[in-house]
């Protein structure tokens, strides 16, 4: 008998092997089949709350592409019964790009005589020095492409030596369309030769010249150890309780986030994670006009988690978590130290000096940081969840790495692709993240309202014309809950539980505090908007459906569009006092700078979830004074 596993514990390597064996023995796949990922199937809320967690069936979906089947597949397996429950051929769209696809795209492209000829035209004879970046082929499938085939695009960069930064030397004008079913370059577009930029883009310590020598060490020590407790993937820190996992598509997931309030464990979020993201390029040139990669759902961002290193990625008393995923041939692989957790001093939590008595009370703020960093091709994405002593939850996305590039002739560069180095331009683009926030605020039935600051009309009640108010509007159904930020009105959205009142007789609530970022800038009838409908609004609210997890649907790779949030909300389901899910799209609109080259200093975006009448008063009054204030 094995020890019962909590239903939200991540899949183990042994479970993944068993799932693959069950599927193989069902004889539905050919030898050519390659796995894209193994998706944990989390029990829905009703099942999870139903009682005995250990008795809940553990399930997994194995998703991949079988060249002999000529399609992607989606298999549902019960690990508790060692049984294939369902097997289907994916009819619209494809399984995510697998590590096997990435290797094949490079080999197929380099073997193509037309591509070789185009490289020789650019003075490149040594193809070993060429780096091929595979890009998803979705949205702009060229005429004549075999229907439903697994298509990718390949663009090329040239190293000076194997260890340098190939993005310094983009092969401008050349795009190969690779058909992974027939294993051939289906089409090669050559928009003309542009000379390589003259400078290298090295950024390693040995290449950048003298390093500054006046930075003295910062050491973070916690002599009595950190204040959290960990059991498997269950975490307790201060009054917070939660579980975490690293999902192939959604990255770092928070499960069952609760706060202990005067002895009561109060649920806040059932599940919170990235639900997809898109990086649409704004440069309409032929090299970039098609680029709008879904790094989460097309590239399985979870698989691309870095193995984090103490003292460089994370500083202080760190607790790491490994992650286990499924490789293309059905063998599990693990990423050591994929998730980093630690406590961080965050300045002053609250303070007041009584002017008349000069007595001061001040407390230090501290946050629990749970983070992962993912490398997706040229770019790094860090996802940082922060939990604070005062009940605040924050998501901060950190962006670094190497910006997308174009080689341009001397004197080139434009307002759609500004120059960042001599003869090197970087197209404007957006990074739009959609987070799925499955609230369970003091219970499953919640409502959502929008709050705007608005001036009051001048009149007998507002004689000076100085009055303003917080105006609240209920978002009563899915169609009316597609909303955008409005910093000019300090707009935010509030999730509340109409069945639970605080001592002031007001429903308990948390607010979603957005940043002021534009939604998708591409035209609403464009391919980008069709495929990334979630990016067209900052807020969506849907009625809970356990099958609705992906903001752009389940199989976004080569999907023509319309799936995900636009489809989920098409029925305009009612939202009041019901089990609902909040989806928040935000991001950065990036006009690259010379300072972003050759590697970009970290940029940040995100959102806050803050209690509003969820607690009876400042919940961090009981934080003890420290340091010189403790005596
Ligand atoms: Co960027």
Biggest β-sheet strands, sense, barrel? 10 strands, antiparallel
What separation lies between the terminal Cα atoms? Answer: 55 Å
Number of separate structural domains: 3
Which band does the percent of strand residues land in? 35-45%
Question: Which secondary-structure class do the elements indicate?
Answer: mainly beta
**Tally of contiguous helical segments:** 6
Task: Offer a quick outline of the entry.
With 631 residues, this protein is mainly beta.
Key descriptive features of the protein:
single chain, 631 residues, Nuclear Transport Factor 2, Chain: A, Beta-galactosidase, Chain A, domain 5, 3 domains, binds cobalt (II) ion
Description of the structure:
This protein has 631 residues and is mostly beta strands. It has 6 helices and 30 strands. The strands form 5 sheets. The chain has a 10-stranded antiparallel sheet. Strands 9, 10, 11, 12, 13, 14, 23, 28 and 29 form a 9-stranded antiparallel sheet that branches. The structure holds cobalt (II) ion (CO).
SSE inventory with pairings:
Layout (H helix, E strand, L loop, with lengths): L12 H13 L8 E8 L3 H5 L9 E8 L4 E8 L4 E7 L9 H12 L2 H8 L9 E7 L14 E8 L15 E6 L4 E7 L37 E4 L2 E4 L2 E8 L3 E11 L2 E17 L11 E2 L25 E8 L5 E22 L6 E17 L2 E10 L4 E9 L4 E2 L11 E3 L2 E2 L3 E11 L7 E9 L12 E7 L17 E10 L5 E7 L13 H5 L7 E5 L21 H4 L11 E11 L9 E13 L19
Antiparallel strand pairs: 1-2, 2-3, 3-4, 5-6, 6-7, 7-8, 9-10, 10-11, 11-12, 12-13, 13-14, 13-23, 15-16, 16-17, 17-18, 18-19, 19-30, 20-22, 21-22, 23-29, 24-25, 24-26, 26-27, 27-30, 28-29
Cobalt (II) ion (CO) binds next to strand 23.
